[in-house]
């Protein structure tokens, strides 16, 4: 599988400086078209009914437009440097539904790339936008950081396997980024012997299917104890020397994620590698 359309979701100017060149380089490897989608901060409201028109700070709007122009310039420079085709999209009006715009701009892509958002208070809005991108776009989202980029098809991928729809999508979505003959580790993190047995047949089927595609497949098991399953994925990826992790995203309800914790959240916060999330 080769991605022919890739979308890069830009939230901040600083991130665009390294994310745009990385996305353009990956598009050159795949001979893919690159869509740059700029998601901007929501407008503040000054009192009154939320249904009424917001009172817009002129300075805030000017800042938004300036940032969009800077990101566009960075994006177009990256396209030219890698000699790839692409287009840049940003909201045309300050009252646009910004999360919807970002998600809709990426839905036609084979693959979406987004920068990992630091979890500090000043980026809370960006964290929510990235979560909605993963939940709503219906496309696999590759989350990278400046220190954990992916410039070429991956030679070694760790895949988290469970009996869930999201996990199965991750197994197949990672084929977009796997190099020919890549090493694929299929990892099951099970809290009990009973649950481990439930995925054995599934993993055997997946291993056989990937073997038919020419991949070098290894089956791995880790028992989940008191630690997070996300920690087990990260530890195993480091131990095995993987270049990328692929997992199903947000496989539980929001309440479960809030009370119990979620692998998705853990990987978004802590991963030292690019992570492909499939929902």
From TrEMBL:
Domain UspA: 155-277
Xref: Pfam families: Usp
TM segment ranges: none
Coiled coil region boundaries: none
Family affiliation: Belongs to the universal stress protein A family.
Name of the protein: UspA domain-containing protein
Biological source species: Thioclava sediminum
């Amino acid at each position: 599988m080769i991605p022919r359309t890739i979308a890069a979701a830009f939230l901040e100017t600083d991130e665009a400086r390294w994310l745009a060149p990385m996305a353009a380089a990956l598009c050159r490897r795949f001979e893919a078209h690159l869509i740059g989608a700029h998601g901007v901060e929501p407008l503040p409201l000054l009192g009154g009914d939320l249904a009424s028109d917001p009172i817009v700070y002129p300075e805030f709007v000017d800042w938004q437009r300036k940032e969009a122009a800077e990101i566009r310039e960075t994006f177009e420079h990256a396209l030219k440097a890698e000699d790839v085709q692409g287009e840049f999209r940003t909201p045309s009006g300050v009252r646009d539904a910004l999360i919807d715009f970002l998600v809709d701009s990426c839905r036609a892509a084979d693959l979406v790339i987004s920068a990992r958002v630091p979890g500090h208070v000043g980026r809370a809005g960006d964290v929510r936008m990235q979560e909605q991108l993963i939940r709503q776009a219906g496309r696999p989202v590759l989350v990278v950081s400046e220190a954990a980029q992916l410039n070429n098809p991956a030679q070694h991928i760790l895949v988290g396997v469970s009996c869930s729809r999201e996990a199965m999508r991750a197994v197949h979505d990672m084929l977009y980024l796997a190099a020919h003959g890549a090493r694929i580790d299929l990892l099951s993190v099970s809290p009990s012997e009973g649950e481990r047995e439930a995925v054995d047949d599934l993993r055997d089927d997946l291993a056989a299917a990937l073997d038919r595609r020419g991949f070098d497949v290894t089956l791995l098991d880790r028992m989940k104890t008191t630690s997070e399953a996300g920690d087990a994925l990260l530890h195993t990826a480091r131990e095995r020397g993987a270049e990328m992790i692929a997992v199903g995203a947000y496989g539980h309800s929001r309440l479960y994620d809030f009370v119990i914790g979620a692998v998705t959240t853990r990987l978004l916060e802590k991963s030292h590698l690019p992570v492909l999330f499939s929902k």
